[in-house]
């Protein structure tokens, strides 16, 4: 598979280091070391404790080999995540409206390009809404992607009301019978009350055309942000009504474990994963592949 290499390396290398000799006795030292390795992936103390305790219960005072331990870690993570693949759900009539939110630099605009690429490849038509009117460069960046991917874009002037751009983008999608409308938004912190209210306004404006819109609100999280991802997930899921997560930059991170506590605490499914800067660098999140990558022994 080779896509989650860095996370895979840290976990397997470090778990392997626990097994210098043939097998190892499961005692307090072992459990403490294992706990430290698990926490390094950013899965959080809760899940790490759960896995450690399980291994303690199953194997304490026994000699174990690495595959025994990996098997339990794998099972426990699958149990905690407990999610099927969750692609975007398309509505039957009219455009499916997707709004994309998150902090600055998390990878929103790039993820929109990647999603567009997936959708276009599956034969769907897409209209983009460049509602990040805060930075002129942001509109430019999305325009370049729209040209490259051959899809329509609705823009606003620099400083224009983002809600009006979102409104026009949805209108354009309806008018052209597009399958999907994806609206980019300016980066903001979950603690910036006024900017979080602005997201509410963007949503409200969309419902005037399609009562159920936006059908999906994707929170884009940078996997390298570690535990900050948790506060972002909390702030955004409450204020912006997120329906799922796009976890970006897993290619450059040894910390992809953050998807685990996010799932555990907020019940938000990770829908897609970003693995690079190109339009093709996105895959549907699959727990099985993720856990295998996290723990795979063949490096
Ligand atoms: P935005 O501010 O949230 O819209 O973020 P951008 O989409 O502009 O991305 C910020 C930077 O992160 C850009 O340099 C992107 O190329 C880069 N980036 C986005 N997603 C990924 C990813 O999955 N992997 C890597 N390595 N870089 C990414
Ligand atoms: Mg952007």
Task: Walk me through this protein's architecture.
With 299 residues, this protein is α/β, with parallel strands linked by helices. It folds into two domains: 78 residues, SRP54, nucleotide-binding domain (Four Helix Bundle (Hemerythrin (Met), subunit A)); 199 residues, P-loop containing nucleotide triphosphate hydrolases (Rossmann fold, 3-Layer(aba) Sandwich), CATH 3.40.50.300. Helix content is 48%, strand content 15%. The strands form two sheets. The protein has an eight-stranded mixed sheet with strand order 5-4-6-3-7-8-9-10, with helices on both faces. It has a two-stranded antiparallel ribbon with strand order 1-2. The chain is elongated. The structure holds guanosine-5'-diphosphate and magnesium ion. Guanosine-5'-diphosphate (GDP) binds next to helix 5.
Largest sheet, order of strands side by side? 5-4-6-3-7-8-9-10
Q: Supply Rg.
A: 21 Å
| Helix-strand makeup class | alpha/beta
How many domains? The number is 2
| Bound molecule kinds, no repeats | guanosine-5'-diphosphate, magnesium ion
Strand count, sense and barrel status of the largest sheet are: 8 strands, mixed
State the separation between the terminal residues, measured CA to CA: 10 Å
Q: Fraction of residues in helices?
A: 40-55%
- Overall mean pLDDT stands at 90
At CATH level 3, the topology of the largest domain is: Rossmann fold
């Amino acid at each position: 598979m080779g896509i989650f290499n860095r996370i895979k390396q840290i976990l397997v290398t470090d778990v392997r280091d626990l097994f210098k000799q043939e097998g190892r006795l499961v005692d307090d030292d072992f459990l403490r070391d294992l706990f430290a390795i698990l926490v390094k992936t950013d899965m959080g103390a809760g899940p790490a404790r759960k896995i450690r305790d399980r291994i303690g219960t199953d194997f304490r005072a026994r000699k174990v080999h690495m595959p025994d331990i990996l098997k339990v870690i794998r099972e426990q993570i699958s149990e905690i995540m407990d999610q099927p693949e969750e692609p975007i759900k398309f509505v039957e009539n009219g455009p499916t409206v997707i709004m994309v939110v998150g902090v600055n630099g998390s990878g929103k605009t790039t993820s929109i390009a990647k999603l567009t690429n997936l959708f276009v490849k599956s034969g769907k038509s897409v209209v983009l809404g460049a509602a990040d009117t805060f930075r002129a460069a942001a509109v430019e960046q999305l325009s370049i992607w729209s040209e490259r991917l051959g899809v329509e874009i609705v823009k606003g002037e620099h400083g224009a009301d983002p809600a009006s751009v979102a409104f026009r983008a949805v209108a354009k999608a309806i008018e052209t019978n597009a399958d999907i409308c994806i609206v980019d938004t300016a980066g903001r912190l979950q603690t910036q009350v006024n900017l979080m209210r602005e997201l509410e306004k963007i949503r409200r404006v969309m419902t005037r055309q399609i009562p159920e819109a936006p059908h999906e609100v994707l929170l884009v999280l940078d996997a390298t942000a570690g535990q900050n991802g948790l506060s972002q997930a909390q702030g955004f899921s409450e204020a912006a009504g997120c329906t799922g997560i796009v976890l970006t930059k897993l290619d450059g991170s040894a910390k992809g474990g953050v998807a685990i506590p996010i799932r555990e605490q907020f019940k938000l499914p990770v829908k897609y994963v970003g693995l690079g800067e190109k339009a093709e660098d996105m895959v549907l999140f699959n727990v099985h592949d993720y856990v295998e990558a996290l723990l795979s022994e063949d490096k």
